[in-house]
Design a protein that fits this description.
Layout (H helix, E strand, L loop, with lengths): L1 H4 L5 E3 L5 E3 L3 E2 L12 E4 L3 E2 L14 E2 L3 E2 L14 E2 L3 E2 L14 E2 L3 E2 L6 H4 L8 H6 L3 E2 L6 E3 L1 H10 L11 E3 L1
Parallel strand pairs: 2-4, 3-5, 4-6, 5-7, 6-8, 7-9, 8-10, 9-11, 13-14
Antiparallel strand pairs: 1-2, 12-13
Length: about 170
């Protein structure tokens, strides 16, 4: 019933209640505050852009195409897909750390208009996300302006052969 309401076709309901979809899922422009289903695998693109989502809860674990969550109210990657075999676009949200970020994005990652954008442009390499998270540079994610340990960020940048920085837009330096 819910699948028909959102024009989701070619789906399988798994024993755990999650949904696999052979094709695209378009939940954009629905004024959703949460995803209406618990997705597992999407064999096409997944678009939940231009809603009022505050969490990735219910997002697929894997997407064979692109994942688009542009222009929501997301603040964390918690529950975001782990594997995206296309583009991942989370622009125009308020995501402040890379904790829980996808472990694999095959193509383009776009986080424009998020606080993390100003950290991302310092290295722009998905293979370095785990190392960045290991450096534990972010603090106060729940506050309006998050804090960042500049010395830890610079240690990370030095390890990967990038130039050090004194400040990062959108973050209070610690």
């Amino acid at each position: 019933e819910i699948c028909r309401q959102y024009n989701i076709n070619n789906y399988t309901i798994n024993p755990d209640g999650s949904i696999d979809v052979e094709g695209d899922v378009d939940l954009s422009d629905q004024k959703l505050t949460q995803l209406p289903l618990n997705f597992r695998y999407i064999y096409g693109n997944f678009d939940c852009s231009n809603n009022e989502l505050t969490s990735f809860e219910g997002s697929p674990k894997e997407v064979n195409g692109g994942f688009y969550c542009i222009n929501n109210q997301l603040t964390s990657f918690k529950f975001a897909p782990k594997i995206v075999r296309g583009n991942f676009d989370c622009s125009y949200n308020n995501i402040k750390t890379f904790e829980f970020a996808p472990s694999f994005v095959r193509n383009y990652f776009n986080c424009w208009k998020n606080p993390i954008y100003w950290v991302w442009v310092l290295f722009e390499d998905w293979t370095k996300i785990d190392l960045l998270n290991d450096c534990d540079i972010f603090r106060d994610e729940e506050t309006v302006i998050a804090s960042i340990f500049i010395d830890r960020l610079n240690d990370f940048l030095k390890i990967i052969g990038k130039d050090e920085v004194e400040t990062v837009n959108g973050y209070k330096p610690l």
